[in-house]
Design brief:
By secondary structure, the chain is an alpha+beta fold. Helix content is about 15%, strand content about 35%. The chain has one domain. The longest helix is centred in the N-terminal third of the chain and has 12 residues.
């Protein structure tokens, strides 16, 4: 499965630079999939401008940055009403918010939740919060969200086959420590369908839910910038 997934990543990453993302159909639902390969792309997770004001949108981020190398961006983890992360958030090696291990209601607290991160040497990590904290790796970028969708090749035990809650959803899945998929549905889907898509079609051994309802994609090559919802942390993927 890893070999198939790696070949798919190479196919899309080797396609014209004007099309960093592609549309795939899975179980009759459309998904936009964006490949991330640390060999030719860089990643940043951002939340606020240099004055500490949360961006809340791709437009606000774009207003203060050179965007010529950006391939795509997505919302990247759950946040409070002020736009601030509610879980672990590491930006350029600085811990801006500590990990959240509390119990509670809502998707974030559907344990296990998880953490997506990148180490200073470029290695990608996606693991349950407990496993990540036990390993305590040094990271340059990190965001915590929940629930986990795929854990070591298995679906989250509390996710039903095709539950009644359908929404536009997005997340990230890991193929290996240098290759990932960022995914957003083009139509309302269940947790189960999104989780199976990561596991069965993209062959990700781990996958993490980012959000629903506010899920947004910025794809400059296709002049798409979803700015209808107020966002929190953003993952920005650019050419090296």
């Amino acid at each position: 499965m890893r070999a198939i997934a790696a070949a798919l990543l190479l196919l899309f990453c080797g396609a014209a630079l004007a099309s960093p993302c592609q549309t795939r159909v899975f179980e009759a639902s459309n998904f936009v999939i964006c490949a991330f390969d640390t060999g030719d792309m860089t990643m940043a997770i951002v939340d606020a401008d240099p004055y500490g004001r949360p961006y809340r949108s791709f437009a606000a981020f774009a207003a203060g940055h050179d965007t010529t190398k950006i391939r795509y961006a997505m919302n990247a983890g759950m946040f409070g009403t002020d736009g601030r992360p509610i879980g672990l958030y590491v930006e350029a090696g600085v811990v801006r918010h500590k990990a959240n291990t509390r119990d509670g209601s809502g998707n974030f607290h559907m344990k296990p939740n998880g953490i997506f991160a990148q180490t200073p040497d470029g290695r990608l990590i996606l693991d349950t919060t407990d496993a990540f904290l036990a390993a305590a790796p040094a990271v340059r970028w990190a965001t915590q969200s929940g629930p986990m969708l795929v854990i070591d090749g298995a679906l989250h035990p509390q996710i039903s086959q095709d539950g009644p809650s359908h929404n536009i959803r997005n997340g990230v899945g890991l193929v290996d420590d240098h290759q990932a998929w960022f995914v957003i549905s083009d139509e309302p889907v269940s947790f189960g369908r999104l989780a199976r898509f990561f596991r069965d079609d993209l062959h990700c051994h781990s996958a993490l839910y980012f959000d629903g309802d506010v899920s947004s994609l910025w794809l400059p090559a296709e002049h798409r910038r979803d700015d209808a919802a107020a966002l929190g942390p953003l993952v920005i993927v650019s050419d090296r």
